[in-house]
User: Which sequence fits this backbone?
């Protein structure tokens, strides 16, 4: 009802055209169900795989090869790094609905300036992982449960070149994912306790912003907000 009132208000002030339920917008596909909406990038993923001729290869079950640790200076450099940058840019766009590749894309994004052959090989490994299920996306529930559930973690000194750490977090509203991120730290952490604290600080900052947004929209939500972190 509030949405209809908003449409009337906007129509009185501006000339608008109601196109009904959204099904496709800026590369995102919306599949409406009785209990929620599935948001995916199926068409974008399939076109991506076809563009780089990955449809005829076997699938991989992991985003990156767990036996390989990518380094900055190894093997031969690519003569044209723009090819790699275009690939990673498309993968970064896919993280809008593919939470499962956020860490991998962050890892691959480190090598934009000086791309080597192993980095390009890792990108195509990730593409073959996407081929496993191009329709995978996120489910936004119609449930009115406005409880925040939040998880964060870090891996200490994981970068073989700088010994910097990487943190990630995942925020759920009820059962629906609303925010997620994987990012390398700007400085070196001196202990595992420090790196876990940094992960907590990142997700708490995001939660402060979300809680203030909900308060401004007068949407009630349970407090205090609990954050789960691996110690």
Assistant:
């Amino acid at each position: 009802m509030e949405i209809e009132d908003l449409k009337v208000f906007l129509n009185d002030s501006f000339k608008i055209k109601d196109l009904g339920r959204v099904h496709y917008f800026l590369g995102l596909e919306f599949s409406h169900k009785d209990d929620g909406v599935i948001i995916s990038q199926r068409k974008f993923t399939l076109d991506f795989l076809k563009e780089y001729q990955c449809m005829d290869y076997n699938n991989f079950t992991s985003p990156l090869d767990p036996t390989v640790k990518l380094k900055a200076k190894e093997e031969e450099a690519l003569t044209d790094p723009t090819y790699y940058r275009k690939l990673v840019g498309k993968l970064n766009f896919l993280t809008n609905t593919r939470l499962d590749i956020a860490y991998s894309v962050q890892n691959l994004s480190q090598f934009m300036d000086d791309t080597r052959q192993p980095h390009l090989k890792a990108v195509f490994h990730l593409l073959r992982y996407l081929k496993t299920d191009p329709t995978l996306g996120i489910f936004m529930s119609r449930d009115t449960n406005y409880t925040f559930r939040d998880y964060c973690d870090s891996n200490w000194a994981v970068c073989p070149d700088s010994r910097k750490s990487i943190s990630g977090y995942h925020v759920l509203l009820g059962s629906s994912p609303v925010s997620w991120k994987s990012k390398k730290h700007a400085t070196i952490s001196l202990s595992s306790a420090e790196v876990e604290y940094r992960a907590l600080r990142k997700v708490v900052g995001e939660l402060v912003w979300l809680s203030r947004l909900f308060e401004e929209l007068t949407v009630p939500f349970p407090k205090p907000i609990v954050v789960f972190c691996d110690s």
